[in-house]
Amino acid sequence: MQGQAQQQAYDRGITIFSPDGRLYQVEYAREAVKRGTASIGVRTPEGVVLAADKRSRSPLMEPTSVEKIHKSDDHIGIASAGHVADARQLIDFARRQSQVNRLRYGEPIGIETLTKEVTDHIQQYTQVGGARPFGVALLIGGIENGTPRLYETDPSGTPYEWKAVSIGADRGDLQGFLEENYRDDLTLDEGIGLALRAIASTNDDEIEEGGVDVATISAETEAFVELDNDEISDYIAENELEPSEEDDETDEPAE
Amino acid sequence: MQGQAQQQAYDRGITIFSPDGRLYQVEYAREAVKRGTASIGVRTPEGVVLAADKRSRSPLMEPTSVEKIHKSDDHIGIASAGHVADARQLIDFARRQSQVNRLRYGEPIGIETLTKEVTDHIQQYTQVGGARPFGVALLIGGIENGTPRLYETDPSGTPYEWKAVSIGADRGDLQGFLEENYRDDLTLDEGIGLALRAIASTNDDEIEEGGVDVATISAETEAFVELDNDEISDYIAENELEPSEEDDETDEPAE
Amino acid sequence: MQGQAQQQAYDRGITIFSPDGRLYQVEYAREAVKRGTASIGVRTPEGVVLAADKRSRSPLMEPTSVEKIHKSDDHIGIASAGHVADARQLIDFARRQSQVNRLRYGEPIGIETLTKEVTDHIQQYTQVGGARPFGVALLIGGIENGTPRLYETDPSGTPYEWKAVSIGADRGDLQGFLEENYRDDLTLDEGIGLALRAIASTNDDEIEEGGVDVATISAETEAFVELDNDEISDYIAENELEPSEEDDETDEPAE
Amino acid sequence: MQGQAQQQAYDRGITIFSPDGRLYQVEYAREAVKRGTASIGVRTPEGVVLAADKRSRSPLMEPTSVEKIHKSDDHIGIASAGHVADARQLIDFARRQSQVNRLRYGEPIGIETLTKEVTDHIQQYTQVGGARPFGVALLIGGIENGTPRLYETDPSGTPYEWKAVSIGADRGDLQGFLEENYRDDLTLDEGIGLALRAIASTNDDEIEEGGVDVATISAETEAFVELDNDEISDYIAENELEPSEEDDETDEPAE
Amino acid sequence: MQGQAQQQAYDRGITIFSPDGRLYQVEYAREAVKRGTASIGVRTPEGVVLAADKRSRSPLMEPTSVEKIHKSDDHIGIASAGHVADARQLIDFARRQSQVNRLRYGEPIGIETLTKEVTDHIQQYTQVGGARPFGVALLIGGIENGTPRLYETDPSGTPYEWKAVSIGADRGDLQGFLEENYRDDLTLDEGIGLALRAIASTNDDEIEEGGVDVATISAETEAFVELDNDEISDYIAENELEPSEEDDETDEPAE
Amino acid sequence: MQGQAQQQAYDRGITIFSPDGRLYQVEYAREAVKRGTASIGVRTPEGVVLAADKRSRSPLMEPTSVEKIHKSDDHIGIASAGHVADARQLIDFARRQSQVNRLRYGEPIGIETLTKEVTDHIQQYTQVGGARPFGVALLIGGIENGTPRLYETDPSGTPYEWKAVSIGADRGDLQGFLEENYRDDLTLDEGIGLALRAIASTNDDEIEEGGVDVATISAETEAFVELDNDEISDYIAENELEPSEEDDETDEPAE
Amino acid sequence: MQGQAQQQAYDRGITIFSPDGRLYQVEYAREAVKRGTASIGVRTPEGVVLAADKRSRSPLMEPTSVEKIHKSDDHIGIASAGHVADARQLIDFARRQSQVNRLRYGEPIGIETLTKEVTDHIQQYTQVGGARPFGVALLIGGIENGTPRLYETDPSGTPYEWKAVSIGADRGDLQGFLEENYRDDLTLDEGIGLALRAIASTNDDEIEEGGVDVATISAETEAFVELDNDEISDYIAENELEPSEEDDETDEPAE
């Protein structure tokens, strides 16, 4: 009780440190990320895979409307987890930065550069008053000078580079799955399989139709490509992740 | 009691996350939406139907004054549910964006584009301090490159695309009704019937005169058209939704 | 007690939703409207009638100083109820909008257009921080393309169109009186009588001298005209609303 | 106790309505007015009389320094009651508006026009945050097109027109005195007498030397004139209001 | 206890009225004035005397560093009591206004004009949020058209004109002393004596060396002159105010 | 309990002193620094060594992504401890200042100059409202006119110059280790060894692979150089700090 | 308890007077000054001495990095006590003002002029909201027209001129020491000795090596000169203030 009352004193102010040096609003924004369904990134020598769990809600909702993977530039894709409307703001910001870079320097923006511009933007919302932090985490994947790169941004505005990573719900389990199954010499196809199997691992090893989005940025083409439903179905079948029978649960979207 | 007191601590600040990652003000704005009478959107291959429940209040009030369906552009209609004065702000915003698009690019704005400009505007009111969120949900329907599109915006600023959807009061029941009765091959006429039957389903399967507004955006004409009372009466009769006898209840408008 | 304490948590912040989706400050501003004496609007095919209850206060106060009916443009009148100083702000706003319309488009402003510009202005004060809502309701009546129109604005910024309507004190009773006695084919004279009888209905069916203001906007002349005391006395006599004997109560003005 | 605690919740915020639609800060500003000594205005067909009670404080204070009647323009005088420093701000505002009117239109400002510009200014301080209301009431008297006019402004920003009126301490008693003794056909001299007798009525029917300021704006000359001490003494003697013996009380000024 | 708790509710907000119409922050600023040692002004037909009690603190502090009398313009002096740093702000303001007047109109500023510009400046800090009132009172003395004038400003921003006045500590006693001993026909020398005797009256009728500052603005020369220590000693001797023996108390300065 | 409640009263406001003259938010920001893993700086006559503890987290995270040592200019390196996103802001600030100096003066910025520009920037965030302090400490090392310099910045904005210093976790122990083992005549190689041994001293005298970053700024070359993993391994081996067996703990990053 | 609770009500608001006319935040800033080690100023006919106690902290910290005496202009030095980062802001401000004066008037700034510009700057932070007061006191010493001057600024923004003064820890004892031992005819050398003996008086009459900074501004050269360690050692020896044996305590710096 004591501890609780004391905590309350510090977590209401947006930009205030607690006595033990924590920023509670940023930690609560991390909870908002956990409330969103998972997105997964896998980096292979052949390119980057982004996959997003988007379990069906209402059969009347257009599956494409639950966007969790976005093209930021020809050679960069971004997957999100958490507060959807916040994600849209950051993705718009990333797109603008990508365009500005092309206009100003006549060349595509680097993946690390873009990531850091995004995290700087996020950090401002954790230090200056008058706004709340962004309740979303992003995976930024792309090709830079022929090399696949995969970054994560969190609500504090810290950038991390990964070989394979999960954001959103069940991060603990998913990250464990990735650590066990990741190999440095995965093909892009194997990377897609790994991502799908990870997502299925939290759902009885099944993925329903339209239940995931998958995109790749190949090192060869340096192009962001979203897989269509048939391609995804092939990968699901190949990895034996088809649902057995029941398929009708309707989840509320995280907000 | 405990939990309640704790919740109070977080829901008073507009732009603050709760410890479990929720934005209470946005959730309360969703309650404001539920306080409004329902609006329904149905997408058919022949066009989009927007229908709004506007049960009579005082017999002296002009029924047309309870506007819930608005023309945003020649090819786009918007239906609202929730705080009426907030809806008017967003619809004005949508109209301005539509005009700007025509001026700047010489062509009608896309339905998805418009929806996202509206949701970006809504999101700002949930992150930056000094204002409250919008207490209203919108259905944005129209024709884009010959194809009917139907979107929903919610108070968090998230866009969703639907085949058929309900906003406002009784969303749970209405959405269930739509899921049971929607077919992908509905004609526009059948779409109007479905929308009216849905609205009637929460009112003893009856619709009083002047109790609904209906508008369509046909894929053929690409034009927003509001049905007049006679046309609506015909559809009500056709669908056997005429009220039996009593007709006099007076509801207070949601504010 | 519980409920009360909880309510207090939400009604102190100007622009904050309560858990059930209400804006308490707007609802309290509606109470400020109810504290003002009533104003009544009646729309007839021949024109619009505005009448305002202004029971005498001190015999030394100039009756004309308790302005509740104002000319907004040649063809538009506005009656108010509630916080007098707030009403003056909105009426000045309406006059400026009317003038701007004439300057910009070379024609008189439409009644609906003007009403919506006023309600948009009111809405801003309910969403953006740093100010309180307007504690006043308005009746905006006028002639548009030869047709009489009568609108109400409330503190939330919602516009309503009416055949006959009352704002301010005793709205429940007065609206009931109007619903019982309104006919669609009233002459302008009969409309004045209806308005006076409605006001008298809450005061032992009597109206003291100088106790009401009456103005009309005739469809024929399209001109706002304030009745002088003799004319009003004639209508009072005609409708048998003269006070019997005692006449001396002094009310405090609502602020 | 309950009611008191609840009231406290609403009266601390400057621009917030209470649940019953009141603005407590404005009502408290009215209390500041009551803390000031009274000022009185009397309108006669021959002109307007302004009189102010300024009972002596310290014998060392210059009586002229307790200004309560001010010239706003050649044809307009203003008397105040309440917070002295606030009064000075409003009177400066009125003088600037008077000058602007002469510069812009080449003619003296109307009394009603000036009053409404002042009350609009006052209203802003009751609606927009970041400042408190003005704790002062004014009497604005003058000649407009040959006709004497007398207005009151209160802390809410409402203008009232009066034949005779009192602001400040003892308003209830003084207004009663004026209602009993006012006649529509008073001469300007009789108006001065009425004002002095009213002030004396709350002080054993006596007025000490230097205890009142009196000014007139005559309909004939259209000029604001302050009476000198000898003239005032004559009126005091004429109305038999000389103090009998003791004369030495020292009041603290209201602030 | 009750009353105390209630008072606390109102005195924390800078610009808020209490239910009885008081501005507590202004009243507390008056307390800051009382915490400062006294300053005295005496107006005689031959000129104005300003005297300030500056009892010694540390023997190592330069007596001239405890400035309480300042030259504002050639013909104007200002004495202060209260918060020293605040006094410096207002005196700088007064000096700037004096210079502006000379530049703009080519003539020295009037004493009343200057006083009112200062009090308007003070008033702003009591009405507009974001700052506290000035915790200082001033005596502004000078010659205007050959006539000596003496004004006081208080923390509310009210100007008072005086023949003789005291600000700061012991005002009650000092003002009583002045009322008993002031004569309208004092010479400037006698005025200096009166001021010194007043200051001494609260200190066993003694003034230690360097314990007072004295300045005069003579009607003849229209020049502000600060007396040097020898001159002051002569006046002290002449008025028999030399300290008897002990001389060593060290007071803390008021801040 | 008493003391605790009292402390709470002062530590919530960002820019407020407590009664004993402390700024709690700054002290809590120091706690945020302690939550980060340690960074160490060692100054030798041959140059400056910066070393940072970055114990492995997930095997899938790119070790290079946990940046704790940054190049600020050719001749300046910066190591950080604490809130990572805050560190990035300050390092960007330092880089901009370095560039501005080169542009403006055509020469590299001095180490002390840069440090003070950074600490001035930090101080602003502790005095002016609307933001929180930076939750990070920096070590700024470089060569100025041939001489190695090593500075620390803390969250209050105070600069300190050191021969050898530790920031972040375990500062007490690490600083003790440095004081015991530092010699003024260390070679750069010995400085690297000292830094590594210090870091290992809090971890059973072991450093896992990829567990530290090391950079040097040599007095001879005046160039910031980051050691690659092989070089670091050599130093680890040379100092006998290889881990014995277990190597797999995964720490959560400090935020 | 009562009094304590009441005090808390007033000391949290930055710019608010307490009921007894005190500004608690300013008083708490004075406590921040007392938390800093002492600085001492001594004015002699031959010049001004500034001395600062900077007892050693860590043997690895550069003694020069604990700057407490700064050159503001060729002829002006400033010593500080209290919050180090705040001191740096004020000293930068003083340097800028000195430069501006040289540029604008082509001559060195006066000591009093500079002091008052600094105190005006400090005062603003005590009256206007949005920032806290400066938690530092300064000694400003220099030569003006050949005459040594020594000023103190405190957190309220009040300037004091002194012959000899101490700021920071132990002010009471140190000021007593100075009062007992100061003579008006000290040579500059004797002034240095007095300052050192004062500092030693609170530390068993010993000063460790590097434990003080000393600077002089000689009336002859009009130049600020910092003594080097050898010179200081000579003065320490001359005044028999060498430490006997133990020398190793490590104090935490005041922040």
Automatic annotation (TrEMBL), chains A, B, C, D, E, F, G:
<dbReference type="InterPro" id="IPR029055">
    <property type="entry name" value="Ntn_hydrolases_N"/>
</dbReference>
<dbReference type="GO" id="GO:0010498">
    <property type="term" value="P:proteasomal protein catabolic process"/>
</dbReference>
<keyword id="KW-0647">Proteasome</keyword>
<dbReference type="GO" id="GO:0006511">
    <property type="term" value="P:ubiquitin-dependent protein catabolic process"/>
</dbReference>
<dbReference type="Pfam" id="PF00227">
    <property type="entry name" value="Proteasome"/>
</dbReference>
<dbReference type="InterPro" id="IPR023332">
    <property type="entry name" value="Proteasome_alpha-type"/>
</dbReference>
<comment type="subunit">
    <text>The 20S proteasome core is composed of 14 alpha and 14 beta subunits that assemble into four stacked heptameric rings, resulting in a barrel-shaped structure. The two inner rings, each composed of seven catalytic beta subunits, are sandwiched by two outer rings, each composed of seven alpha subunits. The catalytic chamber with the active sites is on the inside of the barrel. Has a gated structure, the ends of the cylinder being occluded by the N-termini of the alpha-subunits. Is capped at one or both ends by the proteasome regulatory ATPase, PAN.</text>
</comment>
<dbReference type="Pfam" id="PF10584">
    <property type="entry name" value="Proteasome_A_N"/>
</dbReference>
<dbReference type="InterPro" id="IPR000426">
    <property type="entry name" value="Proteasome_asu_N"/>
</dbReference>
<dbReference type="GO" id="GO:0004298">
    <property type="term" value="F:threonine-type endopeptidase activity"/>
</dbReference>
<dbReference type="GO" id="GO:0019773">
    <property type="term" value="C:proteasome core complex, alpha-subunit complex"/>
</dbReference>
<protein>
    <recommendedName>
        <fullName>Proteasome subunit alpha</fullName>
    </recommendedName>
</protein>
<comment type="subunit">
    <text>The 20S proteasome core is composed of 14 alpha and 14 beta subunits that assemble into four stacked heptameric rings, resulting in a barrel-shaped structure. The two inner rings, each composed of seven catalytic beta subunits, are sandwiched by two outer rings, each composed of seven alpha subunits. H.volcanii produces at least 2 types of 20S proteasomes: an alpha1-beta proteasome and a proteasome containing all three subunits (alpha1, alpha2, and beta) that appears to be asymmetrical with homo-oligomeric alpha1 and alpha2 rings positioned on separate ends.</text>
</comment>
<dbReference type="InterPro" id="IPR019982">
    <property type="entry name" value="Proteasome_asu_arc"/>
</dbReference>
<feature type="domain" description="Proteasome alpha-type subunits">
    <location>
        <begin position="10"/>
        <end position="32"/>
    </location>
</feature>
<keyword id="KW-0963">Cytoplasm</keyword>
<dbReference type="GO" id="GO:0005737">
    <property type="term" value="C:cytoplasm"/>
</dbReference>
<dbReference type="InterPro" id="IPR050115">
    <property type="entry name" value="Proteasome_alpha"/>
</dbReference>
<keyword id="KW-0378">Hydrolase</keyword>
<feature type="region of interest" description="Disordered">
    <location>
        <begin position="228"/>
        <end position="255"/>
    </location>
</feature>
<dbReference type="InterPro" id="IPR001353">
    <property type="entry name" value="Proteasome_sua/b"/>
</dbReference>
<comment type="function">
    <text>Component of the proteasome core, a large protease complex with broad specificity involved in protein degradation.</text>
</comment>
<comment type="similarity">
    <text>Belongs to the peptidase T1A family.</text>
</comment>
